[in-house]
Structures are given as C-alpha cells and as structure tokens.
User: Fold this.
Amino acid sequence: MKYRASSGAHRRQSGFILIEALIAVAMFIFGLLAISKVYGILVPAQTSSEYTSSVAGYGNQFWGLIQANPAALNTIGAGNTVTYTSTSVGSAPATLQPWLNNIFTGQLVSLSNASVTITLGADSAGTACVLVPVNAMLCGVTLTITWTPVATTLANSATTRTQTFNYQVGF
Assistant:
C-alpha cells in the first residue's frame, strides 16, 4: 500500500483557518466589551436628561401656580429667600405644598434629595419687591432647584445639578 504524502500547503491552510476563527472570536469579544462600555455611559446620560426635563416642567408648574395665586408670595416676604426640602414641605405656603410634594415624592420622577429655593427680589428694572396690594404686586422671583441624580457614572459618583428660573410677577 502506498501512502501519499500530503502537501505542507494543505496543513498550513487548515491551521490558518483555526487561527482566523480565534482572531474573529477575540474581535467579537472586544466589540461586545466596547458596546457595554458605551452603554454604561449612555444610560446615565439619558437619566440625567430625564431629570433636567422634569425639573423644567416643575419650573413651569411653579410659574402657573404663582400666576394663579400671587398672594402665596406674601408668605415668603419681599426680599426674602426660603429653601424647602422633603422634610420642610409643611412650612411652605399651602398653595405650593402639593407642588413641592410632587418634586420630592412624585410617581414619575422624584428628586427626594433635592432642595427648592425661592427668592423674592427686585424686579427687572431694579425696583424693590412690592407685594401689597396683590393686584399691584411687582416682584422678581428666582426659583432654584438643586438635586443630585442617582449614580451618574459607573463609579457610583454623582454630580449635583442646579437649574434656576427667573420670573417677573406684576407689570
């Protein structure tokens, strides 16, 4: 029986296919690792954007409340600054309490670690705030909402965010 010698080119070809398969698997694994890293960055960024959008909505709700009931500002007082947290909602004017509760314990987005600061100051012309009579009220109102989103990076560190709204009450 004669044995045929196999050519060396055939052996190299079959070995080369195995190396190609190993390289392809390694590239696939590195690709998955890269995608998981990008995912870890994008999800917290999306969450941060969600918080910012919600806070903008809270600012609009505040403006609507003040337009509907400007007398609520009398409780704060001209030239004063008050800060509310989840534990001090009860000291807020009754008109603002449901709104504050929504910020701190809302069903969709709650900022339980937030603080809400309201400052009554001069109007846009620099005239001191006048609260009485209500129909002649003229005041600048600054609303600042500060919060710390939950874990904005993979390292579980969070950055404090602040959004400020300026309003003019009266004409």
